[in-house]
Amino acid sequence: MKADVVIIGGGLAALVAGIKLIKSGKSVIIVSSGQSALHFSSGAFGLMSKFGNEEVMQPLQFIDRLPNDHPYRKISKQLPLSIVLDDAKQILKDAGIELKGDHHINHFRLTPFGFFVPSWLTLKDHLTLDSLENIPFRKVAIIGIDGFLDFYPNFLAQGFEKLGVSTNKSSVNIKEFNILRNNPTEMRAPNIARALTDDGVRRYAQVINNHIGDADIAIIPGVVGLNDTQQIKDLRNQVDCKVYTVTTIPVAVPGIRIKILLQQYFSDLGGWYLMGDSVTDGEFVEHRLSHIFTSNLGTTKVSAENYIMATGSYFSRGIKSNNYHVYEPIFNLDVTSSDNRSEWYDRNFFDSQPFMKFGLKTNESFQCYLEGQVLENVYAIGGILGGSFDPLYDGVGGGVTLASSVYVAEHLKDKMS
């Protein structure tokens, strides 16, 4: 089996890079072991929300102040970061993912715990604010589902009330929810979304209308529209006020929807997506990866001109650790980390944690290293990247993933042309 590019990993980074490469005329194989972090995504992508302890509203103004090994700095030395970000946003739009926001200025998105945090791109059915001073509504109806534990009305109410917005809380039920409770399946957001047919969406909208009262807007859990955006559009059209969804925790329908739409778009363009498979080994010849082997294909070689590591960070097991060191588990590629375990963490739980900055060591072109030597045809993108940034604390996780994916795909397009 052979392609121009093999991408190891099947989440946001892999799919965005794969789509861009296919659209440039390259053949692409994605090897995905299963679920990615997208299944737990908030439905929003942060470009940068903090610089040190400073809140950031205009992220691109801080690029020149970032360390040289920050992915944004590496990209901006070769291409305007704004062009790369616009390209990423267009890829998401072409896949049917409807987002609001741009890279010039952050907006504020509502989190499941009632906080409003800076964001670059947010799904259109989620509540966002341009400012926390001028709130365009005065009363919110927070409407949960009877017995559904992954939605937090009290936290949401406290968040609104801190902004001077009054709330009323209630919960609703329809027969689809009762049927689900009688099944052995857990009462989780994706299962609720699968149970909501067109008639179920209509009934859900009716009971929401019964609980709006005099509220200006309604907030409901994100349990509508697993496979596409049509059902959430239908629901919003049938509710008597503006209605917004909030991502549930732990499993998120919006993130799964993003994954499904991107994967479908990648496949429709002609990409090969090897689902439920994992890379077990590979052979290197003169600082190049010659071919790889996977669990399902056995002794069959999968070869490409170039390879991309998009296996994610700790959550996706693209990076692992034991008591002594942090490592990349497939090829043992070089990692930016410390061998002193006491340097992995900060005792203040709410500070930036050093281990979050660990990941694959890469050069200016995002090429990986093996035993101190640059690999000519192996690149890294997304959550597996290491450097002087904390994707969570700095609020750059989504931006780094999308920007590095587009940039490396653009680099490979030019390299192979």
Q: What's the main sheet like?
A: 8 strands, mixed
DSSP strand tally? 24
Give the percentage of residues in beta strands.
15-25%
Number of H- or I-type helical stretches: 10
**What form results from the Cα inertia axes?**
globular
Helix content: 25-40%
Question: Any overview of this molecule?
Answer:
The chain is an alpha/beta fold and 417 residues long. Helices cover 27% and strands 24% of the residues. The chain has helices spanning 12-23, 71-76, 81-94, 153-162, 175-181, 189-195, 198-210, 230-238, 253-268, 397-416, and strands at residues 2-8, 28-32, 44-45, 50-51, 54-55, 99-100, 107-110, 116-119, 121-123, 128-129, 139-145, 166-172, 217-221, 242-246, 272-275, 279-284, 289-294, 302-309, 320-321, 326-327, 335-336, 359-360, 367-370, 373-380. The strands form seven sheets. Strands 1, 2, 15, 16, 17, 18, 23 and 24 form an eight-stranded mixed sheet that branches. A four-stranded parallel sheet has the order 12-11-13-14. Strands 3-9-6 form a three-stranded antiparallel sheet. A hairpin with a 4-residue loop joins strand 19 and strand 20 (326-327). It is globular, with a radius of gyration of 22 Å. It starts with a strand and ends with a helix. The model has no long low-confidence stretch (mean pLDDT 94).
